[in-house]
Amino acid sequence: MANHQNQGLDPGAAIPFAPFLTTSHGVLYQKDCLEVLAAMRSEIVDCVFADPPFNIGKDYKNGFNDRVRENQYYEWCKSWIYECCRVIKPGGSFFLYALPELAVRFAGFLNERMDFRHWIALSMKGTFPRGRKLYPAHYALLYYTRGTPATFNRVRLPVPVCRHCRKELKDYGGHRDKLNPAGLNLSDFWDDTSPNRHKKFKVRPGVNELKLIVPERALLISTNPGDLVFDPFGGGGSTYQAAENLHRNWIGTELFDCHHIQRRLEDGYPLSLIQKPGFSVKDCFYTNEDHKNEVLRRIA
Ligand SMILES: C[S@@+](CC[C@H](N)C(=O)[O-])C[C@H]1O[C@@H](n2cnc3c(N)ncnc32)[C@H](O)[C@@H]1O
Question: Which 3-state string (H, E, C) describes the chain?
Answer without folding.
Answer: CCCCCCCCCCCCECCCCCCCEECCCEEEECCCHHHHHHHECCCCEEEEEECCCCCCCCCCCCCCCCCCCHHHHHHHHHHHHHHHHHHEEEEEEEEEEECHHHHHHHHHHHHCCCEEEEEEEEECCCCCCCCCCCCCCEEEEEEEECCCCCCCCCCEECCCECCCCCCECCCHHHCHHHCCCCCEECCCEECCCCCCCCHHHCCCCCCCCCCCHHHHHHHHHHCCCCCEEEECCCCCCHHHHHHHHCCCEEEEECCCCCHHHHHHHHHHCCCCCCCCCCCCCHHHECEHHHHHHHHHHHHC
